[in-house]
């Protein structure tokens, strides 16, 4: 679709947003019911609900002045979200970026003290940055934050290293590997359900019909066990036990997250490592994990066998005890990579694959737990496909509604909600928007946020964007102004199992796009589908309180402030004998 055909009168749209912290439910209500006019024409109701003009604080004025002085006219007529700084306090950044997106349009500049960020919420512009001119940008501030943790792993790697490592790693996610991993997903999810069944039995002995627990923490343990086994054949066993390595992994993940939300790179000051207790703990945690990973790498190297190489070349994983990615990297590429590089790769996948999947499961559970009829629909599908069995790959193809629930959760809660880039040379973004028919110029060194959250909730591309409607992926038409969902027909159980950025022409890109797209996308989709499947096969789920009580915070991913507290019951309606 040409970008000009999608041009919309942004300025006419209702400015939207409320001050202070907002819960996810409030955000949903705001957009769904407060009079957004689908024809993009200003309507009376929308006007009457405009938020009052924002009063600028001294900080806003100082921030704008500084931004104008330092960045001023360098990006031509690009709209500026002025007076924005004070809005940033007390709510996650991506919420504020959404408000300004509705107010200023799909490409705007965020005045932020000495820095200006360009915020992109347009599919064609996102496609340009991620795919067409992918090597004109790097990961900017994200690489600075992650380099001390992931070294030269794929996410922060410089271009030269990235090219070599990407070529080494991507073949590791071959179809036979994904098939073999389904068993790992099953076994780990079974551990979780067994644990929950035990807890329920204890509750039932005490005449209680349900248990209350924080599902976010259960999903976090599940995702950690899966990533440990599938990437380096190490059983964290975190669903059932605590260990120093698990503690260290959680410590490191939390530091990575803290760094991504903190504006001053405190970790770069050499003395901080010695003096600040938090930094000392981080260094100690990192050492525990690095020692563990080095041990696993040496073990894999010592047990390397020529026969294994042949088996892997034939992709016949049924003949090997260890089908992990580490085994693939050591056996197939062992000679090419230093221990340090392998360790960086493993650490990157541990972090990239853990928190994201845990968050997808959390928000899928959050949405489903508010929709008992959807849970029943998912359960009916699971019962009819599995008849009490554990799922295998063939079953996944038939669990269409469940797969769409996972995709829809990723639409509403993309993990991460923002992609970060910095321009390496001057560029011109695709134009066609109101006020910039020619496209904005981007000088070298500009930091950009591509907001997946905004793209996935854009009223221009999604009908009732805030509504959880898994079946929207079946009905979307090319006439929506984009290419449509060509190639996605999950009803036939063949072809792509999940919608992606190519089919949606970059209006749905939960795994990014272009050369830096996630290497674990199919892995993660399948893992999340199986995790949910095995949970809902056995249990009914409801929120303990109201959705408004689930406060949202964000670091690298979107998660809850105090856990996703749910009530879990044995399924009443389940008449099938379900194997344990
Ligand atoms: C639901 C779970 C997941 C989500 C939502 C997700 C999302 C993403 C996204 C959006 C990117 C692109 C980042 C960017 O362009 O800046 C990315 C990159 C990446 N992801 Fe994932 N991911 C998930 C699971 C995984 C898993 C399971 C693995 C590995 C086992 C993994 C490994 C990576 C790596 C290595 C990259 C960097 C790729 C590169 O720069 O070449 N991810 N992921």
UniProtKB/TrEMBL annotation:
It comes from the Eukaryota. The keyword NADP does not apply. Keywords: Heme, Iron, Metal-binding, Monooxygenase, Oxidoreductase, Signal. CDD domains: CYP97. The keyword Oxidoreductase applies. InterPro entries: Cyt_P450, Cyt_P450_CS, Cyt_P450_E_grp-I, Cyt_P450_sf, Cytochrome_P450_Monoox. Gene3D superfamilies: Cytochrome P450. Belongs to the cytochrome P450 family. This is Cytochrome P450.
């Amino acid at each position: 679709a040409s970008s000009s055909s999608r041009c919309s009168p942004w300025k006419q749209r209702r400015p939207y947003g409320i001050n202070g912290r907002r819960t996810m439910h409030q955000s949903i209500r705001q957009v769904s019911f407060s009079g957004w006019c689908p024809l993009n024409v200003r309507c009376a109701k929308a006007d009457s609900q405009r938020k009052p003009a924002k009063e600028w604080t001294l900080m806003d004025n100082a921030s704008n002045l500084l931004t104008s002085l330092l960045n001023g006219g360098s990006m031509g007529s690009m709209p500026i979200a002025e007076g924005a700084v004070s809005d940033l306090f007390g709510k996650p950044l991506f919420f504020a970026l959404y408000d300004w997106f509705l107010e200023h349009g799909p490409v705007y500049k965020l005045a932020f003290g000495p820095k200006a960020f360009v915020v992109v919420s347009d599919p064609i512009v996102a496609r340009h940055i991620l795919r067409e001119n992918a090597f004109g940008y790097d990961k900017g501030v994200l690489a600075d934050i992650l380099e001390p943790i992931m070294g030269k792993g794929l996410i922060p790697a410089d271009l030269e290293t990235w090219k070599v490592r990407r070529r080494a790693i991507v073949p590791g996610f071959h179809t036979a590997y994904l098939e073999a991993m389904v068993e790992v997903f099953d076994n780990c999810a079974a551990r979780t359900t067994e644990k929950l069944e035990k807890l329920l039995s204890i509750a039932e002995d005490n005449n209680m019909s349900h248990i209350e627990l924080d599902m976010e923490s259960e999903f976090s343990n599940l995702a950690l066990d899966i990533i440990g086994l599938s990437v380096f054949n190490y059983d964290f066993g975190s669903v059932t036990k605590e260990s120093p390595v698990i503690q260290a992994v959680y410590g490191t993940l939390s530091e990575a997250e803290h760094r991504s939300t903190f504006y001053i790179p405190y970790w770069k000051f050499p003395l901080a490592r010695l003096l600040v207790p938090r930094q000392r703990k981080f260094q100690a945690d990192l050492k525990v994990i690095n020692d563990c990973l080095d041990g696993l790498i040496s073990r894999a190297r010592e047990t390397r066998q020529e026969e294994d190489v042949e088996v892997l070349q034939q992709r016949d994983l049924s003949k090997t005890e260890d089908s992990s990615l580490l085994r693939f990297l050591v056996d197939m590429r062992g000679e090419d990579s230093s221990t340090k590089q392998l360790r960086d790769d493993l650490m990157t996948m541990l972090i990239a694959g853990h928190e994201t999947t845990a968050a997808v499961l959390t928000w899928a559970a959050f949405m489903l737990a508010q929709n008992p009829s959807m849970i029943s629909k998912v359960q009916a599908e699971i019962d009819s496909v599995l008849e009490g069995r554990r799922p295998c790959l063939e079953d996944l193809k038939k669990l269409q509604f469940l797969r769409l629930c996972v995709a829809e959760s990723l639409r509403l809660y993309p993990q991460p909600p923002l992609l970060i880039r910095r321009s390496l040379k001057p560029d011109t973004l695709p134009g066609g928007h109101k006020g910039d028919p020619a496209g904005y110029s981007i000088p070298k060194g500009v930091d950009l946020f591509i907001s997946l959250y905004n793209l996935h909730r854009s009223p221009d591309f999604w009908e009732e964007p805030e509504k959880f409607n898994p079946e929207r992926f079946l009905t979307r038409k090319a006439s929506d102004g984009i290419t449509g969902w060509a190639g996605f027909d999950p009803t036939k159980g063949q072809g792509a199992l999940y919608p992606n950025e190519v089919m949606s022409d970059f209006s749905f890109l939960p795994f990014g796009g272009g050369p830096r797209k996630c290497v674990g996308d199919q892995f993660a989709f399948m893992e999340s589908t199986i995790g949910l499947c095995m949970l809902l096969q056995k249990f009914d789920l409801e929120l303990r309180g109201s959705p408004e009580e689930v406060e949202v915070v964000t670091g690298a991913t979107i998660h809850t402030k105090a856990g996703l507290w749910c009530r879990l019951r044995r399924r009443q309606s389940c008449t099938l004998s379900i194997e344990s």
